[in-house]
Write a structure and sequence with these properties.
This protein is an alpha+beta fold and 169 residues long. 27% of the residues lie in helices and 40% in strands. The protein is built from 5 helices and 7 strands, in the order E-H-H-E-E-H-E-E-E-E-H-H. It has a 7-stranded antiparallel beta sheet. The longest helix is centred in the C-terminal third of the chain and has 17 residues. It is globular, with a radius of gyration of 16 Å.
């Protein structure tokens, strides 16, 4: 198990970004913006301020570049649950939990997430995601965790780019 933290900077006000992160259209759109990934996405409300995203992701092309790619199926089914709580701490627009699970792959992500105004400007918002990732594969789980975490900034930049494109529409 490895701890991580990533900060995503959105190019709009906290109020706009709060709406964005509760828009099922955007939650689906951001998956379609990932380079080299072809996927089918379904986003559903799973309670008040809770979204469950289920994505079938074709990773056959990406597998070749990973030393652990042969351990994965050509298609992953990824479930992401974003559960925004009721009463954020002072200074926060929102806070909640972020969970990721993959079918048939022993990987789990458990994290806390917060949304807050960025200092020095009304048109920027920060989302912090901090938690841990666990890959339960004997002998190599830690190496796989390190490799996945090496892509974390790429995922964050992809989220930022998707948000900018969505907001520009």
């Amino acid at each position: 198990m490895r701890d991580f933290e990533v900060v995503i900077e959105y190019p709009d006000s906290p109020e706009q970004i709060w709406q964005l992160l509760n828009d099922s259209g955007f939650l689906e759109f951001r998956w379609t913006q990932m380079p080299k990934i072809h996927c089918q996405v379904r986003v559903e409300p799973a309670g008040a301020r809770t979204w469950a995203t289920r994505a079938k992701v074709d990773i056959a092309q990406m597998k070749a570049s990973s030393p652990y790619g042969q351990l994965l199926p050509d298609q992953l089914i990824i479930e992401v649950v974003e559960d925004w709580g009721d009463n954020p701490a002072p200074g926060l627009v929102a806070q909640g939990e972020f969970r990721v699970r993959l079918e048939k792959v022993p990987l789990r992500v458990q994290a806390e997430t917060t949304l807050e105004p960025a200092g020095g400007g009304k048109n920027k918002t920060l989302r912090r995601v901090s938690g841990n990732i666990s890959v339960d594969i004997p002998f190599i789980g830690g190496k796989v965790e390190r490799e996945i975490l090496s892509y974390l900034q790429d995922f964050a930049r992809g989220e930022e780019d998707a948000a900018a494109r969505w907001l520009a529409q």
